Structure formats: structure tokens, C-alpha cells
Amino acid sequence: MPLLAALMERFAKDRPFDALSIAACLHITAETAMLVRLLRAGGAAVSLAASNPLSTQDDIAAALAIRYGIAVFARAGVDRRGYYRHIELALNETPPGPDLVIDDGGDLVNTLHTRAAALLPSVKGGCESTTTGVIRLRRMAAEGALAFPVIAANDTPAKRLVDNTCGTGQSAIDGILRATNTLLAGKTVVVAGFGASGRGVAERARGFGAQVIVTEIDPVRALDASLRGFRVLPMAQAAPLGEVFVTATGSVDVINADHLAVMRDGAILANAGHFDVEIDVRALAGLAVAVHPDVRPHVDAYELGDGRTLLLLAEGRVVNLVAAEGHPPEVMDLAFGIEALALAWLAGAVLTGNTGLTGNTGGTLPAGVHEVPADIDAEAASLVLATTGTSFDTLTPAQLSYRESWRIGSLSCGSSQARLPGLRRDGDGRGAGGQRPGQDHPSDQPDRVDEVPPPGGRRQREHHREPEREAPGHGPRVGRRPEDERHGEADPGRDQQADRGPVARHPGHGQQVPGQRAGRGRLVAGQAEREEHGVLQERVRVE
Amino acid sequence: MSADQLPYQVADLSLAAFGRKEIQLAEHEMPGLMAIREEYAPSQPLRGARITGSLHMTVQTAVLIETLVALGAQVRWASCNIFSTQDHAAAAVAVGPDGTPDDPKGIPVFAWKGETLGEYWRCTELAMTWPGGDGPNMILDDGGDATLLVHKGAEYEKAGGVPSPAADDPEEWVIILDVLRNSLADHPGKWTKAAQSIKGVTEETTTGVHRLYEMARVGTLLFPAINVNDSVTKSKFDNKYGCRHSLIDGIKRGTDVLIGGKVAVVCGYGDVGKGCSESLRGQGARVIVTEIDPICALQAAMDGYQVATLEDVVETADIFVTATGNRDVITAEHMSRMKHQAIVGNIGHFDNEIDMAGLAKWPGIRHLNIKPQVDEWTFSDGHGIIVLSEGRLLNLGNATGHPSFVMSNSFTNQVIAQVELFTKNDEYKVAVHTLPKHLDEKVARLHLDALGVRLSQLSKEQADYIGVPVDGPYKPEHYRY
Predict the structure, then answer these.
(1) Of B244, B252, B373, B403, whose Cβ has the fewest other Cβ atoms within 10 Å?
(2) Can you state the percent helix, strand and coil of chain A, rounding each to 5?
(3) What is the pTM (predicted TM-score) of this model?
């Protein structure tokens, strides 16, 4: 994780979290361990709980506790009470409470504002890394209930692209494949939701050769999916068609009892959203006459009364972390890098009133949801690109000032081609179509349109030359016999034209058109026709 | 002056300068043909060859023609489609690299965009008639029309006359019979003599090759044929990647329609259908494939396309493209059920994939020409459909066909095949042959540098391990790529 490694050096030197305590609620994976070590290098005392009862990698948790001395409260497979108890323990680790918090889904912040409210006064600020969590926080802030500033680390363009689209896109499918070993090519995969995550899943499923159907409630997202070539249907119509379902909406009961009732035998149900509410697992259980847990690891088979079996992955919880390893390290490198930089900036802003490592605030931040400063996003992205050896351009001073000025429009306004240096003139200066450079704007023409120009422009010159050709005696030049000068050659085929029906009326097939020889090939067929129908006349009528 | 003394027949000779410029640009994009010129011109292997070409008269074909000439051949040319000629290319070929419109020094070419069927067959006959009445001794065909004319001409000369057309014969067939009837009257024995002097035909396209295999099967093939289409470097490239490029080019130039978000039906998932489907999907269309062959249908499904019957989707799709090589794939009845302003086009070689005749006869149908090669047909309920190029290949009719680089692949095969048949005629019996794999691989090699491809080399041990020569051929005959 090269970005975090680069930040390790910087944080060890600058110590942005010196003497601060941080309580974090995150999926405990190898990538998270790197973030925790980074925070500690920055001077923080870190306590950690899991943000999902099934996602903890126990060996990582142990290594953090034993090798790195982090206070870790987490175990894979913990029950619901244990899950919340762990969060409270992490919050209580450094009395009177943590200075900063890092959350993933909003359960830690929620606990702080409810059961652990006694600790609230010591919290100066925090960071949230999921769409779901950010949505919850914005609702809290709208009601005035959020007690401290929280940075919405999920909402930066870089994070959404790398984490939600690429990360969830790849790892959700990874989870499905590891759990079921199903062939995706040729299968109908229904992706519920075409936000950043849904789009990632849909594109990658398509890359595997699946036929993807997208469901959406947002017309703009639905239009986006459609323009990218995905079929968009209501879930009610997609339900009987899908063989694999992946939810990525952040909403509830996206797959409900009605949908389950019409699904195909053997359909696979997976959720890629943060909480396990997108698939109505209770309804599924209600329809089942028998449940066979773990027919394969993380696959529960629900046998329905009518003989169909539906396969639920990861109990409807976030499949990429449960049945696979979550996002790849490169993704978390960027996501956590942004978060660490944002948290350091926040620490600087709230604690010292100074800018910290990046960004400018000048003073404490008010309670509420805040965006990651844009330059942090750009800095993180640049650092990642640097580690992959990818170079890119920067704006020149002239381009910068052009971008900032409203006065400059087209830079070439007023110049004509003839003044451009180095333009090679061909013979007498006529280009391919007989046009001289600069001829578009001869200075002797009036500016105001007041008459109908001859139709066709440059092509018309060619057109007008033809009658000269057709004079008798010029036959050999275009390979025509003198007798061809009559309308209609002595061509046996021509007699057939009358039988061709309406299509024969097309001027290119032998009809006499002013200025055109029948059957000679229509360079400007469209032009002549438009003249005939007076369309060109209408188009240039002024007033 | 009689017909066979016409030096050429094109739309407008003054376009030659423009045509020459585009030919020069194309030469840079056609490394295979240019390399063949360099390799073979010194030995003039086609000296003495009288080649009749029946192949779309485009800028790319001009480079092919001038390659044949560089190798010593005498060439006469017609297009193989009434809409596919690029008039500036035809003019440049007639004028030649050293001539001017006032003093043309090129080759006899009889082709222009927008021929009538009668003119088309007359041009084909002119391309097969040398001054003095001689015929060709080689044919370079695309779709088999030149081959057909010789075979039918010889057949009718042997039978003593041309049959009268039947009442339900297609219009084009009636025209062919007329052309042959006239030539039997004016120049008896012409076609038999031509068939005897023709050493062979090299055929470019799937449909033409199919005709050749049929003739070989029933024993009517008169001279050896090389099936250029089934060189891997032709059909797996031209048919697929060429169509991938030029299908949407034709649709866009014809209609300017937004492809993203539309539902497009591609009938046929052969090499051409594969390219077409990818072409449409790449622009964001949702592509549905129709197929009669279960293997191709399964390929389409695994490539992520919905495979349905035309009846399933005819009322809901926005764009229809036929790519089957078969007939009556889209009928008038289908078209009567389509959405308003559905676009219908064909990219197969012949125009019988869409039933244009049936459409023209549909009760109450009205026709409106929008612009060349774009027609609207309105049914009595008021809904109209847009038909491109009157059901003829829309990539050539509404755009400029395949781009030069991919045509360099195909045409290098053609030139190699012409040289093979002409110089080693005794080694080819009267049957349909394909070029040997080492020549196929040679064509591919000639195109690698231009794309910056760095090819790896087998070591001797590796070559022995898989049982191939270090320099190829690398694959068994049955390998399918």
C-alpha cells in the first residue's frame, strides 16, 4: 500500500495526532491494520472495534493487539450484543473518551449519541467512510443532532471511483464467485442500484460475459445505465429473469417477498450494500420450508414450498467482505490515505485552529458533515499515480489564466487560414475540393444575409462543370459514346427500370434531373433533390 | 465506337486529384500491399495476366489495383455493388498516377456510385471484355458476380440459347439473362472462350465462396478457385474488425442517431455478426442477437448478449442489422410491426436479407427518399421505418466501407492468391482451395510493425516441443483462432 507507506514517513515526522486518542470502528482486515499503524505513527492512541460482526479477520486482530499494542475488541461471528459491546469498549478505552473517531457505517457515532452519550463531550471530530454512514450523519445533522464535525470521507470523487466503483465492483463479484463458483458468462445478473457501487458491479459482471439488468429508482441513474447499454427494468419484471441478484442501493427491502415468490429455481442472492437490510431475509425465511445453512461456506440454501431453492450468500450481509477479502489493498490504500489525510487536517483544524498538514480552515469546524478538502483528494490521487510511475500534465500559466478569465473566447477569432504560417499551398492554392484557404470569408461579401446563395457551395462547382463535358465530341474523355448523350443509353438493363416500383423514382436510377445526366452517378444527388423540393430555398429564407 | 472500346466509365474524372491524395494516404495505411509491391515488382509475376476485378471500387481497392499493375498485370475493373463505389477513387484509377483528366493513363474502370442494376451488369461485362473481344485470364471476384457471368454465359452458349425469364424471377436475374442474351447474339462463343482462358478466380467474400463451393459440389466449376475469405487473416479480421468499424459509421452517417441506450438487433453471429455486435455494444447500445446455429448462439450468450428470435423483439427494438448471408431474414411483415423510425439495414453481401421487394409491394406503403441511400417507408397506420442503402451493404453504401489497414490484410491475401493461381496454375486443380497457412502468417507479419507489435520468438527447443518449425506455420489446419 504505497500511499500509506509514504504517509507513514510523513506522519512519523509531523505527528499530527500527538497525544490524541482515536476510537475506530472499521472492518478488521490487513488493509485496516495498515491504517491503524499509520495513525499510531502519527502519535495517536488507537482503540478498534469491528464494523461488521462477520468481517473480522481474527489473525489480523490478534496481530494488531499483540504485536502493535492496539486495543482491539473484535471477533468474527460475534453476535449482535457482542458487536455493540465491542463498540462501547473501544469508546471507553481512553477515559474520559476519545478525541477523534473513525466510523464505517455510522454505528460508532450512533452509539456515542445514544448509549455512550457520557463520552460525547470529549469527542472533537471524526471521519465516516461509507455512503450509508454519511447518509445517516447528514440526517442527524439536518435535525441538529450531530454533536461534532465529521468529514464525509466517502464523498470525494477519487474515493467513490476507486473504492465504490472499482473496489466494490471487483470484490462483490469476487465474493459471489468464491462462494458459489458459478459461471457468470451468459447468466442474467440483476444489479439493484446504479450508484457508484452498482455501476462497478454491473460493468464487471458484463465484463465476465453476463447479461446485466439494472434496477433503479433514480431516473438520472437509470438513464445513465441505459445509455451505457444496460437493460433497465423494475425489479418486479427482473425478478423472474435473474439468475444472480446483487443489491447495491443502501435502501431496505429492495428484494422483497413478491420478488422472491417468482424467482427462478437456483437463483443466487447477494448484497453489496453496507447493511443487511437490502434483501428481505426474514421474508425469505418465511417462505422457506427448510433452510440448509452452509451448503458451501457462506451459502445458505432456502428450500421453498413449491420445490424451488434460493441461495442466500453471507446471510445477506456485505458479500465482498464476508465471502471474500473485501476491497483489494490498492483500493483501501487510496481510501484510507484520503481518510488519514482528512483526519490529520481535521485534527489540526479543531485542536489548534491551524491548518494541519493540508487545507486551510483557520479556526475550529462547526458540528455537522464536512467535505474532504479538494486538494487532499488531488494530493492522494497524485501520490498513488506517482507510485505507479504514471505521469500526467499540469496546466501552464497561460492555461490557468485562460481558465480563470471570462473575457477570452476563441483565441483564433479574426484570423484566417491564409495568415497561418506554414500552410502549404497546392498549385494555385486550391485544396481538395477546389477551395482556396481563407475563401470562406472574402472581405467583399456583405455581413448581413440578404440573398439566397447558390446551393451546394464547393461541390456545386464540380456539378456545374458537367454540361461542358457532355457536348458531343467530348465523349471519349469520360468514356461515353456520342449516342449516350441522349437520355437513356441503349442499355438493355434500363428497360427494366419501369418494373422496379417506387424505388426506381430515386433520381440516381435514371430519372432526368436538371444539370445531371441520367445514371451517371450522383455526386450531389441530395443537393439536386433538395433544389427540386425547394428545401434549400426555405432554409435560407431570412426574416 | 463499340462498347468494348470504352476506355473507362466513371462519374467525374476531375475528382482524380482528390482520389489520388486519398490513395496516397491509404498506401501508408496498407503496409501489406506496399511490401508485396516491393517484394514482387522486380520479378513481374503477373506479366501476361489479364485480370478482371469485380470488387467495391473504393480508395482501398485502388491500392489493390495499382499493386496488381505494379506486378505486371493488365487490369479491367468494375464494382461489385451499385452503391459502393467512391467516385474519386474510380476517377484516380482511370487517370492513373501519371495521367491527368485530359490525358488519362490509368486502367479501364467502369464504376460509379448509384448505378442502376442494368448499368451494373453492363459494367461487369465491360470489365470482362478486352479490346478485340478477348476475355480475362484471371478473375478477382467479390460476391461471385463476374464468376457467375462467365459460368452462365458458357452454360447458355453450350445449351444454344438463353432461357426466358420466369414470371417470379427476381429483377436482377432478368437483367442478367438480358445481358447474356445480347452477348450471345453479338459475340457468340465469347464466354466459352473466356472460360477456357481463365486460369482461376480468387474470391473475397463468404457469400461468393459459398457459391463456389456449390458449383464445385455439383461439378459445374469451370476453373480453379482460391477462397481468399477463409484465410484467417481475411475473415477473422476484415469480416470482424472491419465491420466493427464500419457498421456504426454507416448507421451514423446515414441517420446521425444516438446509439447509446438503444436496443439493436443483429441477425447472425458469424464473423460479421460478432464485429457488428461489438460495434453497437461499444457505443452503449443493448444488443440482441438472433441465430439459427446453436454454436454461434451459445457464443453470443456467453459473450453476454441476449439471444432471441426476431419475432420476440421486432416490435421493441430500435435498430436492426442483418449479417447472415441468407435471404428473407427481415420480411415485410416484420417491418410492418416495427416501431416508428426503427432503422433497418443490411451488412451481408447481397440485398436479399431484407425483403425490399415485399416492402415495396405492401398495401398502402409510401416511400420517401431522405437523402442518398436513406429512405423512409411509411405504412398505412402512419408508422415509418428507415431503410439504409435499399437493403444493400450499408457500410459501403452509407459510409466508405472498411478502413484501409484491415483491407490491407484482405487484399494482400488477394494479391498473393492471384500470383499463386497465375504462376502455379498446374498445381491447382479445378476445385476451391485456400492459401497455405505459412502465407496466411506472412500476411499477418507484414502488418505487425505498423501497430508497434513486438513478436516473441520460439526457441528451437520450444518449437520442437510443440512440433512446429521455428518460423511457422504455428498452428494445425484445424485450429480455429
Answers:
(1) B252
(2) 45, 15, 40
(3) 0.76
